[in-house]
Structure formats: structure tokens, C-alpha cells
Amino acid sequence: xxxxxxxxxxxxxxxxxMDDVDGAAKLHIKHSKAKFSEAQKLFLNExxxxxxxxxKKTYYIATTxxxxxxxxxxxxxxxxxxxxxxxxxxxxxxxxxxxxVHVDEKYRRMGLAKKLTELRLNWLSQKTxxxxxxxxxxxxxxxxxxxxxxxxxxxxxxxxxSSKCGLLFHR
Length: 171
Fold this sequence. Notes:
Blueprint: E1 12-15, H1 21-29, H2 36-52, E2 57-63, E3 68-77, E4 95-103, H3 112-125, E5 132-136, H4 142-147, E6 151-158, E7 165-170
Parallel strand pairs: 4-5
Antiparallel strand pairs: 1-2, 2-3, 3-4, 5-7, 6-7
Helix pairs in contact: 1-2
């Protein structure tokens, strides 16, 4: 697949605002079975939490002048949890986590996920030197996370409604 040539100087990175709810929802439904109204509610809650608990959760986005084209989050879980997008059967350990990176297909392979990960890790560095990322087996972003120093912490995390297993990485 050929990506349209885009001037990277026309892509802007910043922390999320409440004005980004619809853009994130539109991008999310391109890659999920969710309805727009469900995604909109999800991101309304997610982004509100960033402002209610600014030291516990953040999202960064990439935009062109008029479109949200990528987003990624980070958050802290106080206790062991199965509150994750893959719905694991066993609980993930408490701690700091990088959340999923979503990039519009037209803008993939341009370094946006890497830049969003740098921003999230910089944000986390003010809080901790340790964090986790949970990825579905076979996920194309695994090499990128390894470049950032993540190593497999635990394997064979069974997920509800999936034949694949998850990998928990730690740094």
C-alpha cells in the first residue's frame, strides 16, 4: 500500500482536550465494531478522567490542521485489574501503563506512533521509571516498544473472545 506523501511539519502533537472527543471516536470506530455513540461516550469518559486525575492519566494526539489522525494514552492502575481493551481473563498487575496507539491508516508508517510513545514516556518519566504495555500477540508495534527498552514481562495472557494470547511488556 502506498502512503500519500505528507509534510510532517503539518502534523501537530499535543495533549488531548475535550474538543477531541468526536475525532477520537471517529478514528476508533474505523478499527472496531463500536458504534459512534458508544465510542463518543467512551472517549468523553476517558478524556474527562485526564482532567479529573491529571497525575494518573493522559492522552496525546496527532492532528493535521483539521483532523485528528492519531491518539495514544497512558494511565495508572492502583490495583491489579482486568480493565483493559483486550479483556484479559486474569488480572494485570497494578502500575503505570501505556494504552493503545491508534493511527489513521493514511498516516501509518510515518513515525506517529513512535512520537506519541516518546511523549507518553516523557510524561511518565516525571512519575516513574517503570511501566507496562499490554499487546496482543502478533501486534505490529512490538518492535517499536522493544526499541524503547520494553522487555517481555509475562506471556500467554488469555483474552476473552479471542484465540490469540497477550504479551505483557515492562520497562
